[in-house]
């Protein structure tokens, strides 16, 4: 059985997810902003959309102020590449004072990447919390 050839763009995005997690957890706003396209946007829960580096920077600063011990760990489960665009869906372990490996407060994310001057950059960054399980009775 032939093995599927690894896609270098998918590998690059997975590596970027890991680097972005580290920069975000380190609260290095300048480094975090470098992951976003110039026309990038964040679409986070309970906030209006923020477009452009200045608005995205303000969102991250607000998040850090609200959760000074924040830990983030992006875990992609599906990456789809289509030319110079890519979708990256996965889980993010997102907790104000979490430690690596903590599985509490897991959220879903969807990031749209675009190739900007040869490098992958975040065009749209959105996430939402996983809800409580719904129990139905028949």
Main sheet specs? 6 strands, mixed
User: CATH first level: which class?
Assistant: Alpha Beta
Side by side, the strands of the main sheet go: 2-1-6-5-4-3
The structural class is alpha+beta
CATH architecture: Roll
What shape does the CA trace take?
Answer: globular
Distance between the termini: 45 Å
Mean of residue pLDDT? 87
- Whole-number count of domains: 1
How many E strands? Answer: 6
Protein described:
The protein is an alpha+beta fold. The protein has a single domain (8-129), classed as Nuclear Transport Factor 2, Chain: A, CATH 3.10.450. 27% of the residues lie in helices and 40% in strands. It contains three helices and six strands. It has helices at residues 8-25, 29-33, 53-66; strands at residues 36-43, 50-51, 71-82, 85-95, 106-116, 119-129. It has a six-stranded mixed sheet, with helices on one face. The protein is globular, with a radius of gyration of 16 Å. The chain starts with 7 loop residues before the first helix and ends in a 9-residue tail after the last strand.
Set down the secondary structure blueprint:
Elements: H1 8-25, H2 29-33, E1 36-43, E2 50-51, H3 53-66, E3 71-82, E4 85-95, E5 106-116, E6 119-129
Parallel strand pairs: 1-6
Antiparallel strand pairs: 1-2, 3-4, 4-5, 5-6
């Amino acid at each position: 059985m032939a093995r599927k050839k690894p896609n270098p763009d998918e590998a690059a995005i997975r590596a970027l997810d890991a680097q972005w997690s580290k920069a975000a957890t380190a609260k290095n706003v300048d480094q975090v902003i470098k992951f976003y396209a110039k026309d990038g946007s964040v679409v986070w829960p309970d906030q209006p959309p923020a477009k452009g580096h200045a608005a995205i920077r303000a969102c991250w600063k607000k998040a850090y102020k609200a959760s000074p011990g924040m830990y983030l760990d992006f875990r992609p489960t599906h990456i789809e590449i289509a030319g110079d665009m890519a979708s990256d869906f996965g889980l993010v372990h997102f907790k104000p004072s979490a430690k690596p490996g903590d599985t509490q407060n897991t959220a879903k994310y969807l990031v749209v990447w675009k190739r900007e001057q040869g490098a992958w950059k975040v065009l749209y960054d959105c996430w939402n919390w996983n809800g409580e399980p719904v129990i139905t009775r028949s």
